[in-house]
Amino acid sequence: MTLSTELESCIMHFGEMGSRWGFNRTVGQMFALIVFTEEPLNADQIAATLGISRGNVSMGIKELQSWQLIRTQSLPGDRKDYFKPNGSIWDLAMQVMIERRKREMDPTLSLLRSQLITNENNDIGDYASSQMHAIHDLLEMFGGWFDDMQRMKPEQLKTLLKLGSGVGKVLDMKDRILG
User: Fold this and answer.
1) 127 Cβ partners below 8 Å, 6+ apart?
2) Is the pLDDT of residue 175 over 90?
3) How far is it, in rounded angstroms, from Cα 10 to Cα 100?
4) 70-74 and 41-42: which strand pairing?
5) Max CA-CA distance within the chain?
6) How many Cα atoms within 13 Å fall on the side-chain side of residue 178?
7) Averaged confidence pLDDT in the chain
């Protein structure tokens, strides 16, 4: 498969962004290629298009599957596995956020809970304890907000995101009226 210069540039960019999202450059490129290609791709097609080894593709596929970002599809008369995105762009974005929460926020919350419980018997200092409580409470609030967002339909999320700073203006007006 031959990529246009523009599509190749975009795939390379997603590779660079991959490390910021929690996986390596090659996995980011593979993900972009799968998302931007209409037909499902097999591992040989991915390797040839990106110019990477078949082993690298196999490891990348396992990583993308562990994030639940791709799914396997079989084609009639073909024994190879083909890969396609595991849902819409909204589904994929939500899945990345779910995985980042599991891998980053949940362990931090667990550590803070443990430290705060242990702190009752130890002396880490009032300031450090106060900061731990503040971080814990903030992460809990984000977690609750994210749980609420997960229950919303994509159309509702789009509307909420379009409101943007308008929500702040409504809250300011409420404060002026009630304040």
Assistant:
1) none
2) no
3) 23
4) unpaired
5) 70
6) 6
7) 91
